[in-house]
């Protein structure tokens, strides 16, 4: 029931969200640091949250699209002009961040690794 998608960088993200129905609440976006050759993100909080999020998604019985978006390498992310930070639709301050697209619900940082908060995010999303 959960469809997942991976996007790399701001350009791919921008192209994808341009085609989302403005009234849709069935898209959830997870912003994370770019993966290293090891397959893990350079972002320690992202590495901690990802297995919790993926396990939760495997059990979720909802029709949603869950979009994994890598925000780039550490230098790109730490730049104050990083478009993920400055875009009024995302306004990221930390990664990982999970946003219900076209909604107000979001989890930031260590919140993303807490199953009970994921439950609340997806319950509120109805």
UniProtKB/TrEMBL annotation:
InterPro entries: Thioredoxin-like_sf, TXNDC17-like, TXNDC17_dom. Coiled coil: none annotated. SUPFAM superfamilies: Thioredoxin-like (SSF52833). Residues 8-124 form the Thioredoxin domain. GO terms for cellular component: cytosol. It comes from the Eukaryota. One of its GO terms (molecular function) is protein-disulfide reductase [NAD(P)H] activity. It holds the Pfam family TXD17-like_Trx. PANTHER family: 42-9-9 PROTEIN-RELATED, THIOREDOXIN DOMAIN-CONTAINING PROTEIN 17. Belongs to the thioredoxin family. This is Thioredoxin domain-containing protein 17. It comes from Spodoptera frugiperda (Fall armyworm).
């Amino acid at each position: 029931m959960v469809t997942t998608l991976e996007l790399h960088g701001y350009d791919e993200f921008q192209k994808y969200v341009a085609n989302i129905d403005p009234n849709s609440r069935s898209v959830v976006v997870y912003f994370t640091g770019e993966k290293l050759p090891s397959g893990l993100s350079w972002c320690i909080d992202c590495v901690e949250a990802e297995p919790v999020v993926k396990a939760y998604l495997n059990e979720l019985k909802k029709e949603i699209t869950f979009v994994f978006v890598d925000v780039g390498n550490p230098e790109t992310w730490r730049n104050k002009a990083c478009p993920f930070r400055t875009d009024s639709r995302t306004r990221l301050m930390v990664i990982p961040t999970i946003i219900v697209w076209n909604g107000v619900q979001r989890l930031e940082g260590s919140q993303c690794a807490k199953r009970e908060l994921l439950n609340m995010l997806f319950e509120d999303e109805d």
